[in-house]
Amino acid sequence: MPRFILLFSLCLLATSSHAQEDGAALFKTVCAQCHGPQGEGNEVLKTPSIANLPHWYVERQLTNFHEGKRGSDAQADPQGALMAAIAKTLNPDQITAVASHVQSLTLVVPQERILAGADVKAGGELFYERCMECHRYNASGEQLFGSPPLVGRQGWYLLAQLKKFKSLHRGNAKGDEKGAKMVMMTTLFVEDEQVMKNVVSYILTLNPP
């Protein structure tokens, strides 16, 4: 291998390694206190598991928080408001670094498998009719559509996000095109909390053992 190519390759590896180290350090300093050292989340703090979320999704959400597209209403969304305050302390390079680290974390499988009183069969029908096209048949997400994986997220968190979309406390900000799509879906096809519990419970069954 020509010497300049070898040197260039070593530089790229060093840069990548440095970015990973920076991302890990940022995560430990900025994220772990609420989301846990493994990104497993904390129900008491109402912080979701973020472990293994794709970097492109984490980066977009942190940017949304940074730009005020999420977390602008502290009364309706206190957790989002806290995230917005934290995201505003990060520059674009730091956001990219921490997003890459989050993706490297091992998926944490929720312990819960069904929400109380849910109709999993009805939830599965709604999922295949309205959710599968973007989030895929196994809820693994699809970058092309900007749709994140739903597996690995706790049921209480998924339920809370559906409520926020339907009540216009998430996804209603100007410029949040992906969020706006979820607002439309919940407005048109999610009648009430029972329907939310049904589809969330079905999603929980898609998690690995």
UniProtKB/TrEMBL annotation:
Signal peptide coordinates: 1-19
Domain Cytochrome c as annotated: residue spans: 18-106, 118-207
SUPFAM superfamilies: Cytochrome c
Family matches, as InterPro entries: Cyt_c-like_dom (IPR009056), Cyt_c-like_dom_sf (IPR036909), Cytochrome_c_Oxidase_Subunit (IPR050597)
Keywords, in A-Z order: Heme, Iron, Metal-binding, Signal
Gene Ontology molecular function terms on file: electron transfer activity; heme binding; metal ion binding
Source organism, top-level taxon: Bacteria
Pfam families documented for this protein: Cytochrom_C
Protein name, UniProt field: Cytochrome c domain-containing protein
Organism: Prosthecobacter fusiformis
